[in-house]
Amino acid sequence: MRGLREGDTVRGMAPPVRYAVSWLNARCSETEVDVARQPPWDATVTYGAVGGTKAPDLMAFPPTGFRPFEQRSRIGHGARRWEHAWQSTMSWGIQRASGMRVQLHESPAEVTEGTYTPVSFDRDGRPQLVAGSTEDGEVVYGAEGQSFIAPGDTALLVVPFLFVGVHAPCRVIYVIDEPNRKGFAYGTLPGHPEDGEEAFIVDQTEDGSVWLTIRSFSRPGGWQWWAVYPVLRCAQAVITRRYFRALSDPLG
């Protein structure tokens, strides 16, 4: 996470907020050292229920010790909205439009080759390619030159939080690529403020409506984050609203 920049200040803040900012600032250098010592692609996820966001009964039976979440909202209508929604989703566009910086880390071949890529089928039963690759495994790019997400991709999300940039390393666990339903889920890596998994799925229904569904299960990633859990929950709510707004804003 990034510390306070020159000219930033915590003066005038309420004592609890001032304490939280000072604590986060002190954690910056520690996290940066950890990331430098172990590159994100070399780390394992920090939870056991990998792929758990696919479970239909997630809200009723989440992994033990984790808080489940699910929200589904209509973000628009029509072919143009659908193209914008799925291409943004599959290229980290939701996160970028929500104010995060996304730093992609290229993984060695042994990491990506060992990652399971699910096969989807069209209405006639023909297997479909994942949006991010061709038959030869080459990366596919969107209309604006952005590369599409693929299973095994590793990224460092820099999340604005209490005047600092919190580092949130993650790995793409699975990708959904169906004709009218696309998305992905990422799992948390060491250094992320939370442990758990989050899925972003867009779909278009028969009436042309476009929807975004976010599903997750999470818990604070250590005692330090448990100490500021109420603030963390508030930040989660704000970020989630930004996610939905990122895809529902008027198209240019």
Automatic annotation (TrEMBL):
Tree of life domain: Bacteria
Pfam families: DUF1990 (PF09348)
DUF1990 domain residues: 47-111, 146-246
InterPro entries per UniProt: DUF1990
UniProt xrefs under PANTHER family: UPF0548 PROTEIN
Protein name as annotated: DUF1990 domain-containing protein
